[in-house]
Structures are given as C-alpha cells and as structure tokens.
Amino acid sequence: MSAANALLSSIHLRLAGDAVLTALIGPDGIRDRLQTRPKLPAIVIGEMETRDLSTVTEAGEEHLITLEVWSEGDGRRQALEITAKVTALLDNADLALDGALLVNLLRISARSRREPKTRYYLSEIRFRAVTE
C-alpha cells in the first residue's frame, strides 16, 4: 500500500472511530465524493497532492490533503462544529500507517463558505502530512 493510501485509510479510521463525530454526521457520514442528493452533514475526502520529500538518505513524501465538511440544516454553525472536531482528532495526531511512518500531520488552514445556488455550507480543512 502506498503511503498516501495508508494515510487516507488511517485518517478514515480515526474519524469513523470517534463516537462524538459519528453522532454529528451519522454512521455513513464520511465519503470519498459528494453524491447528487447528499445526506448531510457529511465529510468528503477531497483533493490530495503528494510530493517527493526524499533526502539523500531517507525516502519521504509530503501530502496536502483537503477534507470537506458539508452542511445544510444548521448551516455554517454546524459545519464549523464538525470542522473543530475533525481538527481536534487529526491535528498533530499520531496515526499508525500500513507500510509507512507518519512523521507529522498538521492542520494548515480552514475556510468556510456558502456554496452558490445551493443551501449548503462548505468548510474546507487542509492538512499537511509528512511520511517516510
């Protein structure tokens, strides 16, 4: 398994294993895409960019990951509440990866907005992870 896939799998396990987050989004609230008629709120695993970060002696990668929190019912307040919980679960988390070592995982930014032409709110959380 690649470090990127192992990282995504571990992030999914951490989020899905939290009872408070599951109460906020439901048992099937973590997805890899937003469906046409989505059941909200939901967390969607968005963009991921991976770059080589190897040194002369060590292989390494940098991963920039975007998690999207979608909400409609309680709008921005609900999206930001879920964003705060996701950040608490993942920022500087020590996750076990299959076949790789996670050096660090840090939240680098978050932004929220109302999506035009819908009643959905979107909060995007960007994380930077380094793996060896």
UniProtKB/TrEMBL annotation:
<dbReference type="Pfam" id="PF11367">
    <property type="entry name" value="Tail_completion_gp17"/>
</dbReference>
<dbReference type="InterPro" id="IPR021508">
    <property type="entry name" value="Gp17-like"/>
</dbReference>
<dbReference type="InterPro" id="IPR053745">
    <property type="entry name" value="Viral_Tail_Comp_sf"/>
</dbReference>
<protein>
    <recommendedName>
        <fullName>DUF3168 domain-containing protein</fullName>
    </recommendedName>
</protein>
